[in-house]
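USER: Write out one fold?

ASSISTANT:
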Amino acid sequence: MSNSTSTPSSSSTKIDSSLDAISPTKTAKDRRAERLRELQSELEELKVELGAHDPHEIVQTHIKLLHEYNEIKDGTQALIGKYAQLTNRTVREIHQEMGLPLTD
């Protein structure tokens, strides 16, 4: 039995390392780990960019600004409609005259 130069543990190690090299599971794990590192890095960059600002507060500010914008736009459209009515023209004609877009 001493003719065999390879021990069970060394054969097992060779097989394990060759399987690791071709194992698609390990490659998928490596890709997931790399993607996780990328996302963590991106998260840190966004935290730095956000600084001490509260995300909820930022969203609420944007909602408030959009609400104000929509109120102003609605008022403007009402005035354009009245002007069109007074001048016997269409709203489309007024938009074209003033160089305004016909859609949002």
In short: Residues 47 and 53 are 9 Å apart (CA to CA).
